[in-house]
Amino acid sequence: MNHIDPFLKQVAAHYYQQGAEELAKLRFIFPSKRALSFFRHHLSQLATARPLFAPRMETVSEFMHSLQPQVQILDKTALLFKLYQTYCEVRAERGEMTESFDEFLYWGNIILKDFETCDRYLVRTDHLYRNLRDIKEISDDFSYLTEEAREMIQGFWGDLPSLQSISEDDDKGYKKRFLSFWECLAPLYERFTTSLQAEGYVYDGLLYRRAAEAKEEVLDQLAEDEKLVFVGLFYLTPSEEKLFKTLTKAERAEFCWDAAVEVVHDTNHPASKYFHKLCKEFGQVDGPWKEGARAHHLPHEVQVIECSSLLSQAKGLPTLLQELNIAEATENLEAAIILPDEGLLLPTVSSIPDDIGSINITLGYPLDRTPIALMLKRWITLISFNLKRSESSARYPADQLLGLLGQGLITAHAPEATRLMEHIRQSKRFFIPAKDLWTDKTEAEFLHLLLDPLSETSDPLQRIEAVLLHLIQSAQQETPASERHEEEGEEQDTALVYEGLSSFDIEFIHHYLRLINRLQGLIQQHQMVLGFEAMIHLLEGLVGTVTIPFEGDPLQGLQVMGLLETRLLHFPTMIYLSAQEGALPTKRYSDTLVPYTLRRGFGLPTGRAEEDPGQDYTFFQSIARAERLTFVVAPASDGYNLGEESRYISLLQYIYGCDIKRRSLRLEAKAKESAGISKRKEGELWEQFVYRTTTDPKVDPDRKAVRPLSPSSLSKYVACPLRFYYEAICRYREEDSPSLLLASNEFGTVLHRVMEEFYSDLTKSPSTGEQLTFTTITKEMIDEKLRAKGYIRQRVEKAYREELKLKSGIPLSGLSRIYCQTIERYARELLEWDSAHAASFSYAASESEVYAAFTLPSGATAYLGGIIDRIDQVDGKYRVVDYKTGNASLTISKPKDKSVRWEERLKDPKNKAILQTLIYCAGLAQTYKLDESMIHPAIFRFKGNEGLVTKQKKYDPLLTFPIGEKQSKVAAPYAEVKESFEALLVDELLAELYDTDQPFTQTEDAEQCAYCPFALSCGR
Fold it and tell me: Considering the entire predicted model, what is its pTM?
């Protein structure tokens, strides 16, 4: 394919050759500001040898406004107020009731869209709305149908209005009320437009209609010797066509259309027919672009890359840019990324590598996607939830509260928000009464502004304004963080940054405040009384129209732009993201009151592809001079398309014969391989640990400097030595983040408290010091307590409140009651088991601390110990009882390899509960000098098929071990397993732990990393 200069460069060269004097008389009109900037750029490059005065250049929108400088364009919100005022007048003259503004708002938006379209397409609104009224009258009356016909239609469409089932008077009233709305649309349009123009206002569509119908008045707005040059305005509405015909007839305008577009030379494509229609009606300037080259106007290389999701497109962008060598092509405007879905702007920009020298973003940053907007959207959702409820006292969903309070803007200006979030999570309630959030009204003024309930008569705009002003004022009272860093000698970005509030945030807030003031002024001007939803809807409508432009050189660097910005522009390398149907090309259908048949009959757009060849022409014109074209397709459904690839790809491949290379992008969420981490056993922290765990606990009863190594810590060492290092040596702790759901350790703690309190009530003299005191517990004693109404439930709720620090006066939430019922069930199952398995047993203690001393191979002594859940005696056997509300192994499985000793299986993290219980047995024997042959380890596991809740009275808590020559599983006392167990514990585990030559290393079992709080720091 021969190289063809960009279209705008051809136009600039053509008119530059006519000389500076002739060029100064011309007035160029372009479809977009971006095209205007590039045309000016090309013209300036040509004028390097011979300076000249630049001709007048503007967009088509600016040109239309210049034809009627005496009128002012009203924004959509002001138009809605004006439309409602006119609507009320029209309905009142007809003696009809009017809806409130809140009810009218939805329909008002649609009516404005229809008025806009009718004006641009020069439709006679009186004819259109008269036909619309007649269609509605016919479509609502089914009385003429036979019963058989009604049944057939009902079977296909569903229920039909049964006008025959109501009285004649009611029927007339129903039809009158229904048709009156449609009858008022024509007079509404007439009075609305007349009233606007009388006050010197218009909207865009009305401006176009006035310009098209003005004729001679339009010519009077042009300078005497001025000639208009319309460049690349392809798809014209009837109002534009009529205006341009007036200008053409007066020989005041000429037109330039790019013919070097593939669809223009495809006689079967609607764009080709429309192109030749334009040339015939308006003429075509005789330039090098007039006919277009005979060769195909298609890229050399076309590739399609399929992605798994929308965001994966942006994540794969760095690799794609590197493949295409974009970093070397950014200086000469040689590459562009096109975003049909503008919601991908931020992910795309953040994914562009640093080696891309400069970037120019033609899309503005939407105000409704800023941090301020996100915070206010969450606030609106929270407040509106309460207003929709009829309850007298306000309450908020806990998840919405946490979502709002977790915003960075809030936590930066109200540190109390963190404490409040903890309070909400600890309450374990899905709905939080507003009055329970705090008691001190003087504390956290900002939080009160956010969370104090609004009544139906309150003004949400005033509250939003107060919140935003508080943010601004608090930021201005603080010393900017950037100034403090500068004083400390640290380099900072040029943007001024306050504590938690950047200069960008302040700009966003000022934009919001201006919009709020604008809306308040309109409400006051029209003396409207609006509800919460109406005010918020109007505010969101205003916010949605505001974009904050990025600063940058539009003629340098990698171009990031939307579809409309590509008009008349050409780049050697083009990348289209979101190249799926529905995004490329964009769907044009919008809500309307005018049905399809009438729209088609009156020449209004219906959304059919063949009606709008402009999108196809724009796309193929933009790629006509490209050398490399890449489509990135995300097949996953995202709500507005089905993930089908764009039809443009099929056109290129099957109709125009492009050889398309297809690839798939797979992003692997695989952590980067890192060298194994090891920590030497040295330094002050290690020495403190050694002293803490090898010193007799008797010397420090308060456990301030001395504490035995706990069985759970040893289990963590077995599972992962490095995790043990972080937790036991460095004493790092995972941040305790309260949750709405009850944590497993909290659940177990409550159950332990309940069981301890139950048996404490039955114990005459609890165990103290170094002597166990046993109390006989009979079946009758247990059964009496179980039969006592509310006895167990009250203790469960008491323990639950103590664990979660809940006030006694606050009723438990539904979720908390479910937790308490589950804990009560577990407690009852355990007590019923105790009652069924012994006429009597002796209870000694619950939550009793024990420890044992073990002599290491080095000669030092290590102390291990912890808290035993329960100690009792049944049939002369001492039981060391451990409660497990989670998963826990109850037996050591028989090794498949007979050469493997059973105790080796204790290293398996699945058997950690057995390892811990055996340590408790050793601690019990040493602490209370008991006969080891009488001590039996026992675990009450509640969950699972083998748990207490399932097996109930058949459950056996005694642990079994595969001991003896046949390795038969037996419930052995601690004395029978002591030798094997302590050999493993002392000679292997503890010897390795205290060996300074063996560093702490990462586990090789990746499953242990799944829930480890240090997995990220380990590179796992």
Answer: 0.72
